[in-house]
Design goal:
The protein is mainly α. It has one domain. The protein is built from 15 helices and 3 strands. α3 packs parallel to α15, α5 packs parallel to α8 and α13 packs antiparallel against α14.
């Protein structure tokens, strides 16, 4: 039985990339396309005389995301690490450009009009932020773990990004990049005092920004008791809660939502999760959330594998993408179900929104490329290994892909980093 198990593990290790990650991504995109069509059909027919209007645009966005993902996979890990700083400059420039020439929708200037589509730079800035921080933590690893001043420049960059996002305003994206910043500092082994100071300063900043604008405070107070004003300030949340209530355990059935009949605003974007709850019920919601959690878990598992083997840049990027998906999923689900104030963040790979979809797919494609490079190096190392150097089985904590710690305690990348 042991030979059978180890043989199956070795067979999985021959895969050139993480097949589960790709399968989960494609499955969630397909679920998203179905839900966008179902949630938007009434609004599309009423506004554009075509029930397929938003579904077709979402299909185009999926095709564009696939092209962007394929393009992102062309960049090697070494190249991404080298250009991470110039990419940050591009991201900051886009955030500044949207303030100058962006289109204003619902009192927010977050989009740049490109033909018939809107580009939201903040979505791509999140991916660029992950790449930049991963490159910084890789280059300055020793300094990061010992010195406070290593974070002064990075925190200053975070403040610059925060200012550009708040001018749009986009408080939700600020929360996401702040969470990514804290998460990567933690996994990067940050100096304890630096880590605690950063957390304290970020909490102060986010709190001040939340109470500074009256509409943000209104969102906070409204979510605490939306039924106090169900036809005014609490209208969107009460309609969302009604959708969940109608869904019950098994749901009303695909396409049978009542709340999407223009009762629930933004039914196909920020609140598509509520329509999923109404049509799919608790079981449908649980299934989709579990798929998201599985996807996030694969990200963290890949990250752990790389970090243990000394592949720091790939490990940090994978962890950052896992943080991005975790935070956005948590906030979107929490806002739709009344556990958190509304933030205007999409449900990753599910909600309607081309920029969000393209950015997330690009990020996942980068992780797939980094994982592929890592597996290729591992296989070459295995082919050249001396007798007695063997792979560690999954029982020692290995992932579906190689948890490429070897018995000699060396890694396939440089042969000198301890497996511990």
């Amino acid at each position: 039985m042991g030979d059978l198990w180890s043989g199956a593990a070795r067979a999985r290790d021959t895969a050139p990339y993480d097949r589960q990650l790709l399968f989960l991504t494609m499955t969630l995109i397909l679920v998203g396309l179905v839900m966008v069509f179902s949630a938007s059909v009434t609004q599309a027919e009423h506004r554009y005389d075509s029930m397929f209007f938003f579904a077709l645009r979402d299909g185009v966005a999926i095709a564009a995301a696939a092209v962007i993902g394929a393009f992102a996979m062309m960049f090697s890990g070494d190249l991404l690490r080298r250009i991470s700083l110039p990419l940050l400059g591009v991201g900051l420039l886009l955030l500044l450009l949207v303030l100058l020439v962006g289109s204003e929708i619902n009192s927010a200037r977050r989009w740049i009009r490109l033909g018939g589509f809107n580009l939201q730079p903040a979505e791509f800035a999140k991916i660029i932020w992950i790449l930049y921080l991963s490159g910084f933590l890789t280059r300055k690893r020793e300094e990061v773990t010992r010195k406070l001043r290593a974070f002064v420049k990075q925190f200053a960059l975070l403040i610059v990004m925060a200012a550009l996002l708040l001018l749009q305003p986009d408080y939700g994206s600020l929360v996401v990049i702040s969470g990514i910043f804290i998460g990567l500092l933690f996994v990067g082994g940050a100096h304890l005092m630096s880590f605690l100071i950063c957390i304290a300063l970020l909490l102060i900043l986010l709190t001040v920004m939340a109470v500074w604008e009256p509409y943000r405070m209104l969102r906070i107070t409204t979510f605490l008791d939306p039924w106090q004003d169900p036809f005014g300030k609490g209208y969107q949340l009460t309609q969302s809660l009604m959708a969940f209530g109608r869904g019950g355990l098994t749901g009303e059935g695909l396409g049978n939502s009542v709340q999407k009949m223009e009762y629930l605003p933004e039914a196909h974007t920020d609140f598509v999760f509520a329509i999923l709850g109404e049509e799919g019920g608790f079981l449908g919601v649980a299934a989709v959330v579990l798929l998201e959690i599985w996807l996030i878990w694969r990200m963290f598992r890949i990250s752990r594998t790389m970090l243990r083997a000394g592949e720091m840049f790939g490990g940090y990027v994978s962890f950052g993408m896992g943080m991005l998906l975790s935070i956005q999923t948590f906030i979107n689900v929490g806002a739709a179900s009344g556990m958190l104030p509304t933030k205007g963040l999409t449900f990753p790979l599910i909600s309607y929104g081309g920029s969000s979809l393209a950015a997330v797919v690009a990020g996942i494609a980068i992780v797939l490329r980094l994982d592929h490079e890592f597996r290729s190096r591992y296989r070459r190392h295995g082919d050249e290994a001396e007798p007695g150097v063997a792979e560690v089985s999954e029982s020692s904590g290995g992932a579906d892909a190689p948890d490429h710690v070897v018995e000699s305690g060396k890694t396939p990348s440089d042969g000198s980093v301890s497996a511990g």
